[in-house]
Each structure stands twice: as C-alpha cells, then as structure tokens.
Amino acid sequence: MTETNPATRPPEYAAIRTDGLTRRFGSTVAVSDIDISIPRGTVYGFLGPNGAGKTTTIQMLTTLLPPSSGAGWVMGVPITNRDRVKSHIGYLPHESPVYESFTAREQLAYAADLRRMEAAAADERIETLLDRIDLIDAANDRIGTYSQGMRRKVGLVQALLHEPDVAFLDEPTNGLDPRASRTVMQMITEQVEAGMTVFLSSHILSVVEELADTVGVLYEGQLVAEDTPAELVTRTECTDGAGTLEEAFLDITTDYTTTANVR
Ligand SMILES: Nc1ncnc2c1ncn2[C@@H]1O[C@H](COP(=O)(O)OP(=O)(O)OP(=O)(O)O)[C@@H](O)[C@H]1O
C-alpha cells in the first residue's frame, strides 16, 4: 500500500491540520501562515520562546479565538464549527480552569456533567484518575486550599476525563514535583497508546523530548522547524554524542534564519 504525503491528505485524515493559519492583533502578527498536519494517536510538541504565538495557536485550534485568515481542522471538523470541535477535545490551559469553592470531586463531577458523561461511568473514571494522580486523600477539600501542583492535577484530570480524541495540554507538569511529573507523563503515554492525540506545549524541554513524536518550533509567529526530537537535535548539529532538545531549541531560536532549512 502506498502512503500518501500527510500534507496532501484530506483534512479528515489528521487529528489536527492547519492551512495558512494566521492571527493578527492590530498590527501584531501573532501567528503567521502556519501549516501543520498531526497524525492521530501521536504527541506533537509545540515549542517557542515567550510571545512566539503558542497560546494564540492553541486558542484558535480550540475555537476560543477566530483566525484572521487560513483554516484549521480538528478530527476533520473545521475549527469554525465550535460545538463539533469541542465534542472532540480536552483543553488544559496555562491556568487550571477550576472553581476555588468546589472540592476536586465536585469540580470533576461538574466537568463530567458538562460533557454529558453518564454519571456512574464518570464517577468511576474520576475515582480512578484521582487515585492515579495521588489526589484521592484531598479530593473532598476545597480547591481554594490547594497548592499550585494540586490545582494542576485537577486541571489535567478534567482535560482527560471524557477521553477526548485530542487533548491540548499547556504546561501539564507545571508546579508538579518529580514523582507527580513522572505519573503525568505515564498517563499521557497511556492515553496516546489508547488512541488519543496530544498537542503538548511546554517550556520543560525534557518532557517534550521524552513524549513528542514530532516537535514544531514557533518563532515570532512562524513555524521555523518541525521534525522528530532526535532529528532536530541531529540536524541542528547539537550532537557531539550528547545533544539535547534544549540545545537544539536554543540553537534554532537564537538565529532561526540560519536554521530555517531544518524544516
Ligand atoms: N489579546 C491580545 N491582544 C493583543 N496582542 C496579543 C493578544 N494575545 C496575544 N497577543 C500577542 O501575540 C503574540 C503571541 O502571544 P502568545 O500568548 O500566543 O505567545 P506564547 O507563545 O503563548 O507566549 P508564552 O510562552 O509567553 O505564553 C505576542 O506578541 C502577544 O503580545
């Protein structure tokens, strides 16, 4: 069987696909003419310096912000179709979207209800995930009393609760201790093995290097490099045997014009 080029397949093949996706704020071009195609069941690491346009891209893909021009699809659904796109996605934004006055159990039950999950199945999944992420003992405490890391855990469980086809995770390990980070990385790996696609934005490059099948580097709104983590490291000549994605990222973003051909 001959494989077609992912970039030329119809949009329904990809979990996420964009075609010239662009967003301007006045005279600022936050995201400029981005073309990506992310196969289902993979992790896409999305990197870029502060202000590169990562959040803006995620907000367009999660239907929170309309593009200025270009197009995007999530699971084959145009991102202009908010309700249908929302039915396919989970989103963990930079700040966990939780209510201070709720307990973790209440917050997650509320999220499950919004997602129209069947109550018994939702309860079972909530308990499993709370246990997995080591939050079960605090699950009846108000989120207002939680640490940053504990809030992050609730936000992450909330994003994965309904087993979305595509999860957009912005800094999922922010504020987590090493053991909790490891658990979260294992959870992401398991979800992806079960078929989920993960769009992962993080400044913690060791996490991205370990999880991502493909990494895209955004610089001043443009996608300036895209490859597997290993290839990015090799092709930016960071390998004298011990290159890391962090070195590759610094190299690419120090002077992307000389490395734009890595894409
Ligand atoms: N609502 C807005 N109005 C005006 N400019 C905006 C708005 N949102 C973002 N921008 C600008 O768009 C550009 C991209 O911002 P964005 O938040 O997408 O970057 P980022 O890569 O997510 O950064 P960080 O890593 O710091 O979170 C920046 O120049 C930012 O100032």
From TrEMBL:
Alphabetic keyword roster: ATP-binding, Nucleotide-binding, Transport
Domain ABC transporter as annotated: residue spans: 16-245
Pfam families reported for this sequence: ABC_tran
This protein's name: ABC-2 type transport system ATP-binding protein
Lineage of producing organism: Archaea, Methanobacteriati, Methanobacteriota, Stenosarchaea group, Halobacteria
SMART domains hit by this protein: AAA
Alphabetized InterPro entries for the sequence: AAA+_ATPase, ABC_transporter-like_ATP-bd, ABC_transporter-like_CS, ABC_Transporter_VariousFunc, P-loop_NTPase
Entry annotated with the keyword Lipoprotein: no
Keyword Transmembrane annotated: no
Domain of life: Archaea
An MF annotation (GO) of this entry: ATP binding
